[in-house]
Write a structure and sequence with these properties.
By secondary structure, the protein is α+β, with helices and mostly antiparallel strands. The protein contains 11 helices and 8 strands.
Amino acid sequence: MPSDYLMSINQAINYIYQNLDKSLTVEEIAAQCCFSKYYFNRVFKLTVGQNIYSFIKRIKLESAAFKLRAAKSRPITTIAIESGYSPSNFASAFKEYFGVSASVYRKTNDVPSKDSFATVTEHIRNLKKDEHAFEDISAKIQIKRIAGMNLMYKRVICNYTKDLKEAWHLFCEEMETKSLLDKDYLFVGISYDDPLITNEDHCLYDMCIVVDKPTSANVHRIPAGRYACYNFYDKLDTFILAFNEIISLWLPYCPYKLDNRPMLEIYQSAIDAQGNIQAQICIPLQDN
């Protein structure tokens, strides 16, 4: 796939995520890439593995499912509107996709059950029995404002657990080749999918490096904003456990409201001699 095609598809995906609350058409998205509707749909399916209609439906409904799990105080009607549905259309679309109503899903899916993530499910269930779990997680979290950033990114569709370590290794080599790894470089990850909800082999992820000035179209301009930042220092294999501690045991019961900006993983060190990595998992919060 030519690099300019990949760049155009990335721009289309970014546009979709930035407009999940709208009823998007293929013509509108194709116009963002200067492609015809039919040619764009072929290129998109070849690159992403889904046609554009299926992709939009998937991320709208799976993003809604994530909010049902993490933002328990947010009304289902609000989540429907944020997903670009009327409440009645959302109810039928959600039940068709997940097999249960949104209200039932919210009640029963603090941690969606998958055989491949049984360790995560068991970890959260055990912590829920600990009356001090919320306070222990809160002790690792700082509420702070993060300055705006320009992030040069490379996007992959992969299995977070199996594929990201090698993908990051190749990305670092590429950044070193481009002489971007000066003494002040900072890596940031953006995960778009919850693998406990999404097919874990189809998860979207951006590996990023902070740059002063954009040098290509593959740059996210992240605005300044407020985040709940969880301080992580452990083996990479436990990263998903920490993430789910925040989502299942802290965020639904904290006094803050989840924002629609992407979550950020800010890496503060390489893997050290003990096999641990230092990072912050940053959850976007609404300002009011």
